[in-house]
Automatic annotation (TrEMBL):
This is Ribosomal protein S6--L-glutamate ligase. Residues 106-246 form the ATP-grasp fold RimK-type domain. The keyword Ribonucleoprotein applies. PANTHER family: BETA-CITRYLGLUTAMATE SYNTHASE B-RELATED, RIBOSOMAL PROTEIN S6 MODIFICATION PROTEIN. It comes from Planococcus citreus. Keywords: Ligase, Ribonucleoprotein, Ribosomal protein.
Length: 264
């Protein structure tokens, strides 16, 4: 199996890559040329291999998959995850609670974000017109939802392997890489049911599903991540994501082109 990263991300995630190599036979491939010619060269390099696709390049994922390359996650998962407007529509289609999102500004105050941002970047709390970012990217707008924490559920295949509660210390962005405090979190039955519904509909292999935890105990979904990082999981759990992924990869290889969920 080939694990595909962009060069900078591979350096940032070298520890995880090394850990994955302990449990499964993988080859790291770094790639940064997403031009048409670059994709043709990439296709030649990965054809005939399964690819653990760890980049945010939906057009590349679709190109490879359309040319017969087996991706983990599927191209459609990468596409929806990296377009917050598509994610919002997907959550609505499933009927799970989701933060109302629109393409036109709301009455102040509100949250605005780019459609393709990730990791807590490119998100702004707008309290006055001067807070609006001076960028040309497509922006989405959401109301400010009072909440006590942000929760990320980690899902491998159809199995929820853990969840992390993330609380911001001095910012509305509850992201571990931005300094939020983290702790292990036990999902309620309702939360678990909705997370499983999302993962099943996506037919995903490895994602992080994010929701806000409201003061009254209810939850409202925000987005899901592909690729998803596991630093907060390792900080709060004894299980090893790399080992769990290796078990999932082994199962995929043994059952290809089927999955366990295809069995009666």
């Amino acid at each position: 199996m080939i694990v595909l990263y962009e060069s900078a991300a591979a350096q940032h995630n070298q520890g995880f890559i090394d850990e994955l190599k302990r449990y499964f036979s993988i080859e790291l491939l770094t790639w940064d040329d997403w031009s048409e010619d670059g994709l043709e060269q990439l296709l030649k390099r990965v054809q005939g291999h399964s690819v653990f696709f760890r980049v945010r390049q939906p057009h590349a994922a679709r190109f490879l998959e359309d040319n017969g390359v087996r991706l983990i996650n599927r191209a459609e998962v990468n596409r929806i995850a990296n377009d917050k407007w598509q994610s919002y529509q997907f959550f609505q289609l499933l009927g799970v609670p989701v933060i109302p999102t629109q393409k036109t500004p709301l009455a102040l105050p509100y949250i605005t974000k780019t459609a393709d941002g990730h990791g807590g970047a490119e998100v702004w709390h707008v309290e006055s017109p001067v807070d609006m970012p001076a960028i040309e990217s497509l922006l989405l707008y959401q109301p400010v939802v009072p909440h006590i924490a942000d929760v990320r559920a980690y899902v491998i295949g159809k199995n929820i392997v853990g969840a992390v509660k993330r609380s911001a210390t001095d910012s509305f962005k509850a992201n571990y890489s931005l300094g939020a405090s983290v702790e292990r979190f036990e999902l309620t039955a309702a939360q678990r049911n909705d997370v499983e519904k999302i993962a099943t509909a996506l037919n995903s292999d490895y994602i992080g599903i994010d929701f806000l935890l409201l003061e009254d105990g209810r939850h409202v979904f925000n987005e899901f991540e592909d690729p998803v990082g596991a630093r907060s999981f390792y900080q709060t759990h004894d299980d090893n994501i790399a080992e769990l992924l290796a078990q999932h990869f082994t199962n995929l290889e043994q059952n290809y082109p089927f999955r366990d969920s295809d069995r009666n």
